[in-house]
Structures are given as structure tokens and as C-alpha cells.
Structure to design on (506 residues):
């Protein structure tokens, strides 16, 4: 059965945040990603090639469309369409800041690039970080590029969009970390197994208001240390290097 | 002076590797990146807004075109064009494997995503890694997306495209590292300040032939370690976490 023009139009409309928000859905593509998400989020619609569908006897999906590879490529947002695409319902999570008391969490202050956000979700999953608090201006987690870049991490990591200054002010005696050029060498600090690690916008870093609320300023050493450099690290890269060090210290206790 | 149709066509033609190769040039855009590269590579052509040009009394550029922001946006490959674009000559580096004897280098086995390659060059710059050896099928460093993602790192990090098995076989008594799920916890290893760190393709990892030549298999621990996971790390993220650990150990000696 071919996909109707209206269906393809609907799928493409999910590139825009306002449509995803109205419909409360998001799009995911590819066998690995769709396979990972099927057990986690209700699936409204799934279109796949006969080959992909033949692997499953039963699928928890409201509506299934068997399509040709050609038809799938008309609907797909990927450069190289991959056997299956699916529309899932957006989950609704309760935002409870108390998780920061007993676990390590991330906060993102206006991260703008969808790929960066997806990559951060994927690495949070690797490092066992279950909650990410995002400023309201952070890119939408349901952006298709973000979802693809999570590689399934979105099934396990929960995102909460909330004003970061209010969130941080609500915490009592909790370490709030951020990386700064004038921070302390993170390898020389004893890092905690709870609290918040704040990462900033790609161009502007952490905003002034949030910066004032950070009580542990860290620095990721470059190498060799005495070198004059103009360089910096991509926000997802910096997040990974910081999270790896928190977890290295926690595992070696 | 407006950009001619032919000029715009020429600029756009540089999206394709074969045209970049024939012309031996590459494109870079934005004040930070172009500013960083001007001192490092001969510049054949530069188009910029009057505001950008007014900062400079003299520019080492063969041909300069003062253009409106509107004109620039017609030539630009970026979603948000940024004041200046420039065409630089590709440098030619001699490939000398002996640098691996006395410094830490990276090898990339078929990394495919231009953004990943650019991000790896940027982090190599941060961690003082000057040479990256790429398999011939690795994405072209002069892809405009790669150049943009290096954020200027391309001015300091040298890339060499060469068959990796031959390169590794030419080394004697040199540590050759790679990350594998069955490798040894990298935090429990003494890591060297010279040698080669091999990173693999996004989907398939390190190829079989190269894998057999790796003499130090490493593992990046996830957290908590006992967790059953289906996740993995993006190749640029894994490269960063590994390089950071090599440099942490080197700095603490």
C-alpha cells in the first residue's frame, strides 16, 4: 500500500516544532532506533518495507503501512532512508528537582544545535545520567535530527524544559558545576556523585544569570597546558569529557 | 560590487569533492573561522560585508569582493550566512610516519560524517594532537561542513590520507590503540605519550584488517558498569573521552 500524499505531508510537517507540539508526537527512522523506541513510547503509525516487517509477528502499533523502499524515501527526512519510520507519542514527565539531590544530572543552557542535543542525550545514556534539565530556549528534543542522534538514548534519558535559574535556586547545599576558562582543573577536584552539571550555548556559553548560581567552576585542561590557544571544545565534546571524569572518580571510590 | 552568477556557481561547486580536488581549494565561512585561517593558508578569494572589511587595513588575499549581506547569503552554504566567506588553497603535507614514534597521533578508519571529522579535528587541536592519519575512504577534510566544524583547528592539525594497514605495519614497537567492547578498562591502563589511537567508522567500527594490527585494545567504561545497555558512543565523543584520558595521565606524570 502506497503512502497517501496527505500522509507524506503530515510526516514532513513534523519537522516543525509547532506541529510536533500540537500533535504531541515525534518521528523516528531506521531499524535500530525504531526498534529501541517501540517498547518505550506508544507508536501511532509505522511505515516499513516488507523485509523489515517480516521480522516481527506482532507490533504494538496503532496503524502499520507496508511500503516500498521508494515510497519510504518519499516520506523520509533522511538522506539515506532506512527500511522503517515511525511516529511516536511524546512522553510527559513530571519535573522533580529532588532527583538532583541523589543523582548526577545535566542542565543545558540554550544549546541550539539539534545534533549536539541528540549526542548529549546519547552520552548521558552511556554515563548513566537519567535526567537533563533544559532552559526553555534549548532546541526541541523532538526535532527529528535530535531524535536520530540520540541513537535510542531518548528511551532512557528524561528531558525537562524549565527555567534554570529557578531550578538552581530551589536546590539546597547541592553542587552545581559548570565549565569555564577560569575554572579549576577538574582533575584536581573531588567530584560528587550527585548534583548538576551545567553546559552552555554553542556560541555564548553559560548565561550570566545561571553563571552566578554555579558554585563549582571547572576547567577542562588542554594539552600541553602552557600552550597559547584560540581553540575551544564543542559543547557535546565538553559534556562527554566532564561526565567521563565524574564517572571515573565515582567508579574508583 | 555584486558577486557574479559564475562566481556564485563556482563557490557552490566546492560542495563537491571532485571540484575541490581539481581546484585544490576549500571554502570557509564566518569571521572566527576565516580570521583564524587567513594567517595559515593562501587565500585566493574573499567576499565580505563592508562592516567586516572595515576591521582590516590589509588582507593577504588575491582577490577581495565587498558585498551586501544579501549577496553573501546567495553565495553562502550556511543556513545563517556570516559576514565573510573565503576560498583557501589546500595545503600539501608530507606524510611521515615517524611522528608517531615521538608524539600521540590519531588514525580514522572510514569516518563518514563530515561533522564528526571536523569535531575530531577541533578536539585534536585542544588536546595537542598534531597529526591525524585517515583511511582513503574517510570523508574529505575539505568538505565545507568539516571545515566549519573544525572551528579553526584545521589551521594547526595536519591530516594525511593513507592506507592504515600499511601505515601501522611500517611502525616498530609502537603502541597502537583502539576502543572495543572487549577491550581493557582504559582507566586501569598506563597510556603512552606517543603512538596511534585508531577510531572506526560510525556504523561498523574499526575494520577487520586494522583491528588485527592493534596491540592495545581499550574500553571506555560506561556507568554504572554492571548495567545491561544497548547504547554506544558517537565516534567524536569516544575520541574525546579517550584523548582526554591520555592527556590526563601524561599531565599527572
Amino acid at each position: 500500500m502506497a503512502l497517501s500524499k496527505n500522509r507524506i505531508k503530515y510526516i514532513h510537517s513534523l519537522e516543525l516544532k509547532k506541529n510536533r507540539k500540537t500533535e504531541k508526537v515525534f518521528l523516528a527512522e531506521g531499524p535500530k532506533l525504531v526498534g529501541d523506541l517501540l517498547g518505550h513510547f506508544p507508536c501511532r503509525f509505522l511505515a516499513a518495507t516488507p523485509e523489515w516487517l517480516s521480522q516481527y509477528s506482532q507490533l504494538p502499533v496503532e496503524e502499520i503501512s507496508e511500503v516500498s523502499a521508494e515510497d519510504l524515501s518519499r516520506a523520509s527526512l533522511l538522506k539515506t532512508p532506512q527500511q522503517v519510520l515511525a511516529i511516536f507519542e511524546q512522553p510527559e514527565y513530571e519535573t522533580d528537582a529532588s532527583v538532583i539531590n541523589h543523582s548526577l544530572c545535566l542542565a543545558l543552557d540554550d544549546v541550539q544545535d539539534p545534533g549536539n542535543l541528540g549526542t548529549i542525550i546519547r552520552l548521558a545514556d552511556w554515563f548513566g545520567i537519567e535526567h537533563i534539565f533544559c532552559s526553555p530556549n534549548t532546541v526541541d528534543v523532538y526535532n527529528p535530527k535530535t531524535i536520530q542522534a540520540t541513537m535510542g538514548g531518548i528511551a532512557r534519558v528524561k528531558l525537562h524544559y524549565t527555567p534554570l535559574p529557578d531550578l538552581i535556586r530551589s536546590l539546597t547545599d547541592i553542587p552545581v558545576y559548570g565549565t569555564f576558562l577560569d575554572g579549576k582543573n577538574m582533575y584536581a577536584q573531588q567530584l560528587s556523585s550527585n548534583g548538576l552539571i551545567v553546559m552552555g550555548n554553542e556560541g555564548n556559553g553559560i548565561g550570566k544569570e545561571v553563571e552566578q548560581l554555579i558554585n563549582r567552576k571547572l576547567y577542562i585542561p588542554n594539552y600541553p597546558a602552557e600552550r597559547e590557544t584560540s581553540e575551544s571544545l564543542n559543547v557535546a565534546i565538553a559534556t562527554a569529557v566532564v561526565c567521563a571524569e565524574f564517572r571515573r572518580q565515582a567508579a574508583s571510590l
